[in-house]
Amino acid sequence: PSDFGVYAIIGSIGSVFLVFSDIGLAAAVVQKKKIISNLEIRTSFTVQLLLGLVIFLIINIFANAFAVFFKIETHTNLIRLYSLVFLLSPFRLIPLAVLERNLRYMNLFFVEVVSIICGSIITVILAFFGFGVSSFIWGILVNYLISAVILLPQQSWFRGIYFDIKSFLLLARFGFNYQINVFLGLLYGPLTILYLGKAVGSENLGYFQFAASIYVFPLAFSEIISRVSFPVGSRIQSDRVLLKNLLEKTISLTSITTLPLVAIGLVAIKPFLHYIYTDRWLPTLPAIYLGIVQIGIISYTGVFSQILAAKGRSEVIRNVAVIWVLLTWISAPILIFYFNFVGLSLTNLLVAISGVIFYFKLKKYVDFSFSNNVLVYAIGAIFMAVVFVILQYMFADTFILLVISTGLSLTSYIIFLLLFNKNNLVQYFMLIKSVF
Hints:
Layout: H1 2-21, H2 25-31, H3 38-69, H4 76-82, H5 85-101, H6 105-128, H7 133-151, H8 165-188, H9 190-215, H10 219-235, H11 240-277, H12 285-310, H13 314-339, H14 342-354, H15 357-363, H16 375-394, H17 399-420, H18 422-435
Protein name: Polysaccharide biosynthesis protein C-terminal domain-containing protein
Transmembrane segments: 6-30, 50-72, 78-99, 106-129, 135-153, 174-195, 207-230, 251-276, 288-309, 321-339, 345-362, 374-393, 399-420
InterPro entries: Poly_Biosynth_Transport
C-alpha cells in the first residue's frame, strides 16, 4: 500500500502543475466553431511547450522541498523523473486535440491503446524486477513518448515552434475560461489527495489510491462517449434538434455500457479482490463501493457538462466547480478525521451527487428526455446483478466459477436488451461502428 501512496503523492504533485501547463488551448482547438488554421495550432503547441519547460525547471528546483513536506525524502529523484512528463506533454496533447477536432477517432483510439499497452507492459516488467514506485513513473513516460512518436509524423501543421499573438488571443478567449474550471478541479481533485496523504500517511493513501484504480473502471466507456460528444456538440451547438438527438443517444450509450459495469462491480468486487489481490486489500471495500456509486453518477453528469462546454457555457461549469471546491473542503477534513481514507470517498460521493445541477442547467438549453434513455438499461443491469448473486449462491466459491458467473451475468444482460430493446441496441451498434 505504501508504494501506491508514494505514487499517488508524486502523481498528484504532477497533476497540480499539469493544470498550469495548459491554459485551455487544447480544448479551444477542439471547441472552435470556425475552421482552425495551422498558425493557431502551432501557436498552441509553442505556448504549451514553453509552459512545460518552465514547470519542468520549477519541479526540479523544488523537488527536495516537496519530498520533505510529504515525508517521501527517499523518492526525491522520482519527483524529478516525473517532471519529464511536462516536456513530452505538448507533443501528445495538441496532436490528440487535432484528431479529436477532426473526429478521427479510429486514429485517436489506436494511439491511446498502443501507448497505454506499452506503458503498462513497461510498468509490469519493471515492477517484476523490483523497481517499485519508479516502475509506475517509467510506465507513464513511455506512454507519453510512444504517443508523441506515433502522432507527430501524422501532423501536417507541425513545422517547429511558432507564435502568433492574434491566434493566441482568439483561442485564449475560450481557453482561459475553460482552464478556470480545470484549476477549480485541482482544488477538489489532486489537492485533496495530497491532503489525504499528509493527514493519514502514505500507506492509507495507498489504500485509497488502490480503491480508486479499481472503481474507476466503469467510467472507461462513458469517458470515450463524452469525448466524442464534445467535438460533435461543438459543431452542432446552434441546432437544438440535432443537439437533443446527440444528447439522448449519448445518454443511452452511457447507460448501455456503464450501468452493467456498475451493477456487476457492486456484487462481484469482494470475491474478485479475494482471488486476484488477496485479502490484504479488503479494507478498501467501503471506498470501492462508494466509488462505484460515484462513478455511476458522474458518468451522466460528465455528459451534461461536456454538452454545456460544447455550447460554450463554461461559466456554468465554473460555478458548479466553485460549489464543489467549497463542499470538498468543508466535508473532507471532517470525514477524513472520522473515517480515514474512506472519508475522502464519502466526500467524492457528495460532490458527485451535487453534479445533478448540470442536468437542470442543461434542461434550459436542450429539451431532452433522461428517464426514457436510462430506465430499461437500469432494469437490465439489476437483472444481471441478481443473476450473478444467484449463481454465486448456487455454486462453489472458486475463481473459475467466479469468472463463469460474471460471463453468464453479462450474457443475461445482453439477452435482456435483445428481448426488450433490440432495435435501439442494433442502432447504437451501427452508430459506434460508423464512428470508429
